[in-house]
Specification:
Mean pLDDT: 97
Radius of gyration: 19 Å
CATH topology of the largest domain: Rossmann fold
Number of domains: 2
CATH superfamily of the largest domain: NAD(P)-binding Rossmann-like Domain
Largest sheet: 6 strands, parallel
Strand order of the largest sheet: 3-2-1-4-5-7
CATH architecture of the largest domain: 3-Layer(aba) Sandwich
CATH class of the largest domain: Alpha Beta
Structural class: alpha/beta
Bound molecules: 2-amino-3-ketobutyric acid
Low-confidence stretches: none
């Protein structure tokens, strides 16, 4: 019987992953934690506790007391926010991972999931169909922390046989919990603004194509990777995941098909530079081959669902 701890359960990925993992493993076996309050469906469908991943003592007691076997460590400072507090972001992103890796060894956790990002790539990386193994010279503090994290994950696997699995998420798009402080967040904000105000001022340029993915596909990929047979896992740093690639101009055209009066304007800020250093599309053939990673949503289908669900959420 698996007993799963989610760190960062109030966040964009955590709030949806918690519910899905509870469907798979049973409500009482998935322990949601975060430093902030989580949405009602997370706190009401199973155990939830306020917990700071950097508070090592409380964390180890929690893991032992609840007989935890797997940890999903999702807490991180994202790319845009990290640029405003570089050293603090480095400390939070790195120290929390090392705490989990050491705890895992100490108490003998079976499996760990830790998210990496397309932010591990940089200006010198091939931008189209970025391969699994390629140049990784990130120039954001978030990207540097994710790349260092990948190296630590592989190191702990090689040295201690710790079963850590990871995905380099593209920009994630969801309607349930808003993302916070990322470069790809425009692709979520745009839906709320289109529905509420019929216009959106985008902080990236019209043609800034980035790899993205709709949350249901990301959640399914995450659980598929974690459930894959050990023998199938050939990547111990982090798997590339492709999804859909589009620019602000392209997503706004898609929204206009549903809301013809919608208007987008462009006022690029510091995040434009970050976007320019990231790939435009990702080659995820290794993930497809190793654990049969697949997606359902394209830009068209995703836009339809986002508009429908956010309208319901905003009562519009
Ligand atoms: C961000 O924009 O920082 C994140 C990411 C791509 O990891 N969404």
């Amino acid at each position: 019987m698996e007993r799963i701890l989610i760190i960062g359960a109030a966040g964009q990925i955590g709030s949806e992953l918690t519910i899905e993992l509870r469907n798979v493993y049973g409500n009482e076996n998935v322990f949601a934690t975060d430093i902030k309050q989580a949405p009602a469906d997370v706190t009401e469908s199973g155990p939830f506790q306020l917990l700071d991943v950097l508070d090592e003592k409380t964390l180890i007691h929690f893991i032992i007391r609840n007989k935890i076997t797997q940890v999903y460590h999702l807490a991180a400072v994202l790319s845009g926010n990290a640029e405003k507090i570089p050293l603090q972001a480095w400390d939070i992103n790195m120290r929390s991972l090392l705490i989990i890796l050491n705890l895992a060894r100490e108490v003998g956790l079976k499996k760990i999931f830790w998210p990496s990002s397309i932010a591990v790539f940089g200006k010198t990386t091939p931008k189209i169909n970025t391969p699994q193994l390629t140049v990784t010279e990130p120039n954001t503090v978030y990207g540097i922390s994710k790349l260092a994290g990948e190296r630590w994950c592989e190191y702990y696997f090689n040295k201690y046989k710790l079963d850590i699995r990871s995905i380099r998420y593209p920009g994630l798009i969801s309607y349930k919990t808003e993302a916070g402080g990322g470069t790809t967040d425009y692709a979520v904000e745009i839906f709320y603004e289109a529905i509420s105000n019929r216009k959106y001022e985008c902080f990236l340029e019209k043609d800034s194509t980035l790899p993205m993915m709709f949350m249901p596909d990301a959640i399914k990929a995450t659980i598929d990777l974690m459930e894959a047979d050990l023998s199938k896992i050939t990547i111990r740093s982090s798997y590339n995941l492709g999804g859909i690639s589009f620019s602000p101009g392209e997503i706004s055209n898609e929204i206009k098909k549903h809301i013809p009066e919608f208007e987008i304007t462009y006022k690029p800020d510091f995040r434009q530079k970050i976007a320019e250093s990231w790939p435009k599309s990702i080659d995820d053939s290794v993930a497809r081959k190793d654990w049969d990673c697949k997606y359902i949503y394209d830009l068209n289908k995703m836009t339809e669902v986002m508009l429908r669900e956010i309208k319901i959420k905003l009562n519009k």
